[in-house]
Structure formats: structure tokens, C-alpha cells
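Forwarding the complex inputs:
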Amino acid sequence: MSAAAHSVVEPSTTSKRAAATLVIVYALISMIPLFWIFATSFKTPPDSIAYPPKIVFTPSIEGYCNLFTTRTRQTPEYINSLPPATSFCDETTRKRNMVIAGPSNFLPRFVNSLIIAFGSTFCAVFLGTLAAYGFSRFRVPLADDLLFFILSTRFMPPIAVAIPIYLMYRELGLSDTALGMILLYTAVNVSLAVWLLKGFIDEIPREYEEAAMIDGYTRLQAFRKVVLPQATTGIAATAIFCLIFAWNEYAFASLLTSGTAQTAPPFIPTIIGEGGQDWPAVAAGTTVFLVPILVFTILLRKQLLRGITFGAVRK
Amino acid sequence: MADVSLRGVCKAFGDTQAVDGLTLSIKDGEFVVLLGPTGAGKTTTLRLVAGLERPDSGSIVIGGRDVTKLEPASRDVAFVFQQYSLYPHLTVAENLAFPLRSPARKWSEAEIKSRVLEVAKLVRIDHKLESRSTRLSGGEMQRVAIGRALVRKPAIYLMDEPLSSLDAKLRGDLRLELKRIQAELGSTMLYVTHDQIEAMTMADRIGILAESRLAQIGTPREIYTEPANLHVAARLGQPAINLLPADLLPEGAAPTGTKTIGARTEHLTIRKAANGPADGTVDWVEHLGDQNHLHLKVGNRRLVTLTDPDTLFDKGDRVTVRLKSPLYFDGAGNRIAE
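Prediction (whole assembly, two chains):
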């Protein structure tokens, strides 16, 4: 990037402080819902619905116990006849006149989310990289129209195509399968991936590949040895965008999955306890749900920060 | 190393004819420089030999083998680009080893290492082998780029203005180094430039490209003293050749049909006109340090010649100008041989 394009005046200390304050305040406001969810996940069910809301409370992992287990109500006599509780979860459950009946569906749903989100992200980025390379380097007939067509798949709101897709999937036997969801999210994300990655690959001078091809590499080998390493920034940024979409997607997931392939977003609202919504369990589910995307983003932070400036590849 | 020849090669990009019927033979061990202005088809010619472009017609033969339809990788050529020459994600050593690590070559790591070191010493970059290629200065980068071509022993080295992005001092140094290396290795080289000094000093033969065609090819001496036409004459010489209408100066020896006379410094005898008749006046003396450019006004034409640093001429002096076996060109711009 050229710094000479416009003159840069070092901002004054006052304006720097003002900017910092603004950013911090904005960040805090944005963090409040997240903090509230996080706090709720460590409350007991009565604390979670207390009015006025409790800011200070005794933390409990009951929400997490309830998230990962199913429980049945029993008589106090039956509970007293049981051997002593072996875990904290056992103990809390018994205090509420219930016993743990088995694991809940959260873990398999969470695993579904991982498989589907990462699977579709991999497919979308893989296909997107190859397509973007093709569009960037070869004279593709009607390239501009094709690119517009690829982008146009994102024009409609998902719900507009939900019913046809639902019917198609039922006919094809793809309803409620991980494969079906991976295909669907890949199809949605690949347009984003092609567009983002084309920008990044356009920025890589083709002399590098030409040099490699003269040096005895085939085009594919040159792509792998020379283009890919320089496109990692763009690939990382694209992967995060695709992953965030696939991870958070709710509309298609709730329509097309109900059992074995259900992802976490439609599952979390179904966590219902005895006598109303079990808010700590719902909050615990949401908190656990946030972890993978957080870890992934932190791992790719360096690439993301460089990549987010779209196409500003170091020359 | 091997002979390389292009036979009637044509290449067009859309409506633009980049190379038009180019025929050129390069002998084993020869250093051929293609000289021409931007857009004359120099780079396209190199890319055609390298296989980065396919000719529309004609054929390219390297070492007796018709490579016209072969991929770049199977042509056994090495290429030095004008810029973007190094892989930015690799170190100097990895850049130099890159061609040797090609799956098509089965070099052992030990062989690669010793060859890389050998070449790094040749291009004087062995002290920076572990540096990232983006951390080098312009001259170092270009030395590595040349080194990366030299690690192999291809049929021909193709160089596309490898020195043009460097400053004048560095360009001079690398020019000498490159010529030394080429002479040492006896390599066949096709070198493209728009810098006449590079062409004159390095080439065994110079090919002058103009408007997609090869205007003339010959030794630097031939090109300089016997240019085929006005265009070739204008490419070489510093300051540029003076092109004058045939009747501007008294000249009895001009062959019939002469339309334009080409006069370089060595074709002009300039004397101060004491009191007698004069042909022109000194307009300006341009001091360049080691030499001076003398700007003359003759009739309504300007002439520029070289003169000694301690010249006696001064602005406003009246001078006589005489031609001394200059170059004669006909109406079509072709030189009339005497």
C-alpha cells in the first residue's frame, strides 16, 4: 500500500485518547449480551429468573450439568435409597428431587455442528480457491457473467429457497443428513469464497508461477508451491467468514435437520427444563457453542488482521 | 547449452501484432541482445522462447528439437524477469534451490546444497543465504534472481531487462558481473533491454526490434557503423544521431537518391569561423562532467554532438560544420551503402 497517496498527520494525544475511549465504550456495550449469557450459564435456575436481576450471585455449574444430561423426577425415598452421589452434578440434581437419566443430545448436536461447519468451510474454500485461481489466471469465456451469476446465488434470502430445497432434499434422501447440510452450506459459501479469493489471487503477480513453470514445475505444482503459500492470508480470512456463516446458520438447519444431523443452533432453544425454560442450561449451551469459533478466530488472528484489508497483499 | 532458432514466428494479442515473422538464430555460447523501444515485441519474443506464449505461426527450435508446442517446463530454458523475480515466502537459499527441487529433477539434498552455495558465491550473495528474499536490497534481489537462473545449466538463459529496475551505479556493476559470468560459463543467452549501453557492452550480436519486426541483427560494431535504416541508426549512439536533410550542409559526395544524412559526432568537423563564412552558431554547451554536449543551430535545424570537457566553444560562437563520410539514407529510410 502506498503511504504517499495521502498525507498522514500523526493524531494528537487528545484525539487518540478520545478514539480509544470511544472504542472501549463501544466494545463494552457490545460485550454486555455476551457477558450476560456467560454469567447466566453459571447461575442456578432460580437466580437466573430472579427480579431484579442478580449481578452478584453464587456461581454454580448446574446449567452445564443440565446441558449435558437428561434427568427424571423421583420420590425422595428412592433418592435416599441410592448410594451417595459421586459428582457435583449428581448431588445438585438430587437436591431438586431428580436423578440423572443419561447424557443429553447436546454433545452429538455440537459434534454435528463441528462436522458440518468445518466440512462445508473446507469444501467452500477448496472449491473457491480453485475457481478463483481459474478466473484470475485463465481466459474464461463469459468470465464476468459467470462471476455475476455466482454472486447472484446470494441475492435471495435463504427462506425464499427453503421450501424448494426442503422438497428436493426429501426426494434425494438428503434431509437430516450431515452430507446434505455440508453440500448446502458449501453451495451458499462458495460464492463468497470465489469473490474474496479472486481478489487475493489477482494480487499475486503471475510472474511467480511463470518462473516456477520455467523452473520445471507443472502449473498445478506451481500453484501449490508458489500461489498457495502467498494466498494463505486470503484463504484464512475467507475460511473464517465461511465458518462463521455455517456455524451460526439457523433457518436451514431448523428446517432440514431434526434428528441425527441436527446442529447446535436449532437444538439450543429446545433445552427445556421442568417448569419453564432452563435458562442456565440454554446460556451454558450458547457459551460452549461460542468456543470453537473463538478459538479458530484467535488461531487465525494474524492472517485475519492482514486479510481483512481485502487484497492489500504485501508486494 | 545449445543452438536456438526462431523461424518465422508470429504472435498477435487481439488486434495487436506483437511479433511479426521473426527469424533469429542464436549460436551455442552466444550472447544476443534484443534492443528496442517499449512495445517492440522484445518481451513477447522471450516469452515465446520460454513457452509462456504459443506462437500463432512459425516454429522454435532449441538444440535441434522443435519445442514450439512444449510446456515451459520441458523446454530446458531459464528466465530472469524484470521484477517480482523472487518467491517472497522463501529464503535466498530456498529461492536458489527452487529450480533444483522441481519434481522433474531428482537431485539429492546434498547436491542441491553444494550447487546453491556454488552459485551464491558466483553471484556474490553467499553471505545472505538464510535471509528472507523480501529483506534484500534491489541489487541483491536481482543477483539472487540471476543466480536462480544459473543454478541450472539450461540450453539458453532468457533475461528480460534484468537490470532495469536498479539504480545506475548498480546497473553498471551487475552489467559487468553478468558479462563475466556469461563468459566464464560460456552460456547461450538471449537478453532483452532498451538500454543501448547494456546492448553495446555485453552483446556478441545485437538484434534491433522495431514495430514487431527484426530491423537488423549484427555485431555491435556493424549495428553502429552500418545501420540498415534510420530506425536502427537512431537507436544507438549518445547523443542520438543527427538526422539532417541532404541539402542542409555542403556535401558533394552524397550518392544519388539521398534524402536524409545521418551525422554522429565522428561524422562532423566543427571549427570556429574566424571571420569567413559560417554554417551555424553554438546554441548551448551542456556540461556533463566527463564530456560536453555541443548544441548547434544550423539553418533551422539543431545538431547535438560530443565535445571535450575543456572545449573552446562558447555560446554564440559562429562555426563552420563539415561532414566526414556520414551515413546516407534514401526516401524510404534505408541506408545507401557506399
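The longest strand of chain B covers residues 16-26.
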